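help with this record:
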Amino acid sequence: MDKLFERHDEYVANVPMEYVRSTMEQIDWDIRLIAIKGPKGVGKSTMMLQYIRSHYAADDRHVLYFSADTSYFTTHSLVDTADQFYKMGGKHLFIDEIHKYENWSSEIKEIYDLHKDLRIVVSGSSLLQINDGKSDLSRRMTEYKMPGLSFREYLRFEKGIQVEAVNLKTLMEAPNAYCSMVKEKCHPLEYFSHYLKEGYYPYYFENKKVYQNSVENVVNYIIDVELTKYRSLEVGNTRKIKALLQVISSMVPYEVDISKLSKNIGIQRATTLKYIRNLEEAALICRLFTDISTIGDLQKPDKILLDNPNLLYTLSTEKPSIGTVRETFFCNQLISAGHRVEYGGVKSGDFRIDGKIVVEVGGKEKGFAQVSKEKNAYVAADDIDNATNRKIPLWAFGCLY
């Protein structure tokens, strides 16, 4: 235990405090069992350490942070460690990389049931493994999702520009007021195109020169290791899954033809649908449906996009279609902010938000012809910095969280 506290002290002392993700404010840290989910590299470990440093004294032994993948746990169990910590007066336990501990969910369940006033926070970068543990912890564990950086957060991390977040209702009702406020602090279009290419994952700021290589390495790890281990992906199909991602990255926005996709990568239709679902579960793609309330596990999506524009620029063998980039950004930011996004269909706008708002995404010349019959319709337009009526700058949707 002394070794764990020694490492805890070192981690907490060295965590940077200049920038704190807004996700920290959205979490109710008093809940007994919390799981923080998010793709590798979005800052889960940093946020937990920042919370500890902000709320506990440096020598406070009522709190303990450790990673479940350390050598300490080759000879110790989570249950025994938590039990010893509790008997020493421990109140708040933070366990990182929980997915790397075998049978983690059953031991966390035992700890939860045994120590009624111990608060536990777990996090892991394997979304597949965290999802698998949910059944053991149903009705016990509260999940929080941590996405990559919004455009607003990127401005703060990269340029030190402080911009307040805006909720969607306020943005829709008074877009020009919000855009004017942002423009008093910066010219958003000066930075927007770069954010689309780089900066969604916070490890961009660790080494900018190798950022896209780092993104690609994470993608390869998810496919080569996690999908093969946790979703029974045949090793011989890993190259085909990578080819599938490249095909998706080169798509222009249109309705999905699963049969054509399957033929292109050499996998049967049903298997392709299963792999597409797994890729979404791993936060590599986004499946869109015209009615999300009626979808089944292997239902054909109406549209497929990569999860975020940085993946698009990293995985595409050619310059991505700007239309695909815009739609990928819009979906990513709205979903990350907690909104429900559905495919609008061929005869309506591109997207339906929360079942009631229709949004058409395009360039600065995009008009309202496509959504003329919709009562609650807007245009999200790229390359503009002012809102006019219901035409809102695309970048402004990157300030929702």
Summary: Residues 2-145 form a domain with the Rossmann fold fold (CATH 3.40.50.300). The mean pLDDT is 94. The chain is about 40% helix and 15% strand. The chain has two domains: 2-145, 152-399.
